[in-house]
Design brief:
Oligomer: heterodimer
Largest sheet of chain A: 7 strands, mixed
Distance between the termini of chain B: 36 Å
Structural class of chain B: mainly beta
Number of helices of chain B: 0
Number of helices of chain A: 0
Order of helices and strands of chain A: EEEEEEEEEEEEE
Radius of gyration of chain B: 13 Å
Structural class of chain A: mainly beta
Chain lengths: 123, 103
Amino acid sequence: EVQLVESGGGLVQPGGSLRLSCAASGFTFSSYWMSWVRQAPGRGLEWVANMKQDGSEKHYVDSVKGRFTISRDNAEKSLYLQMNSLRAEDTAVYYCARDLGTRDGYYYGMDVWGQGTTVTVSS
Amino acid sequence: DIQLTQSPSFLSASVGDRVTITCRASQGMSSYLAWYQQKPGKAPKLLIYAASTLQSGVPSRFSGSGSGTEFTLTISSLQPEDFATYYCQRPGTFGGGTKVEIK
């Protein structure tokens, strides 16, 4: 079964750090771009970051640049999000997703999602 | 950066209705668009990719169209399980969402 399972969420004080993990199974993890998407309470979806198969490209939404770092371990079939200098506005459910990327002028979407892990930034 | 604006942000409809949701891009972007359905407490589900291609397993009452700056998601006959929030997305950004509720 194709599956993504996030972990590592929790309650953290403003200015603190947290590392999220996403464990993949049922597919060849090293063949896909991977993304992090978050959803603040009662709000819409926000794309956070993504990473190319070999790690040679990474992209971030402006609001997290310099604070968050996406990484992956293809041998361990895992995706990570290191979050530093956390702010109240980072409070959200964080999802990892398999991103099929773009080619030939088309975007193929994110077809596999985890169940999400909740990050709460509060004192 | 390209911005995506969905309309309406909320709509009330009945079972059997035809529903259309629009996603407008601030700049032309070919067919770089996907649509998702999200139900409360659940992860999003991919419905449409490449603007108009139905994801495997998604009912044929869902369809997507458009290119450039204007895209639409249509549900031809709304079913009880379709009441949810719908998002358009291009690489790097999501639209604001459209919540479809029961009239």
